[in-house]
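May I ask for whichever protein you like with its backbone structure tokens?
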Amino acid sequence: MAASKKPKEPKKPSNYEQILCWIFDRRFSQGDLKVAWTRDDIEEAARTLGLPRPKNLGDVPYRYRFRADMPAAIHSTAPTGMEWIIRGAGDAKYRFDAIPTQIPIVPNPALSVTKIPDATPEIIAAAALSDEQALLAKVRYNRLIDIFLGVASYSLQNHLRTKISEIGQVEVDEIYAAVDRHGRQFILPVQAKGGSDRLGITQVEQDMATCAVKWPEMICRNISVQFAGDLIALFDLTVQDDRVVIRREAHYKLVPASDISAADLASYGLAAGPDDA
């Protein structure tokens, strides 16, 4: 008779998860919708739990702001219809906030696809070191921001890092400046999402805050770009009632010019509205 399999032991929470749960448990009181804490709490949590001090203390909140789901022990305390997020609250300061449950920003598989002649230099496509770099390069060389928004746009700065007093340190993947046919000027923070990174409300909020401080006279439009298989999805995003919402979404496929047929071009003409003529 074959020996019965030993049941698997529950997976031990990661060091980061243990640290974050310790901080939340220490600071949270029943009924709280906002829970303030600081970077010093991370060191205290690691010391109290007998865990190695994280080499970069900022990695702990970053992981749960942009890459990983909130630990179940924290999530379970949120009121019905709400979830916990981590917001920056100043230099080395953070806050757990309970907000309405977010709707994931993912490409809509039912959306039509527009073919664009691929203008990416082959050497750039070959030399890109990451999905994020490759995605930003394809968007830049194929002028997808211009096509998406109907503006003339110009890459202003890559990987902008700055501090905003009420948030703390922020980073934007790329900043574009743009002008439309009416002369309106825009500042466009662009976030490229690939791998395990995910778009959340804190990213959109901090981009809007950065633009309001640095370029107060210009119109801010938040742009997110994502790979969707062999497509590139672009989103124009904003925040309403503590939720990230989509103003507009479009999908583009970069192809050799010879792959765009007369039927494709005819269908794009039918799709154009009176303002697009």
Q: What stands out?
A: The longest strand covers residues 152-164. The chain has two domains: 15-100, 113-276. The longest helix spans residues 201-214.
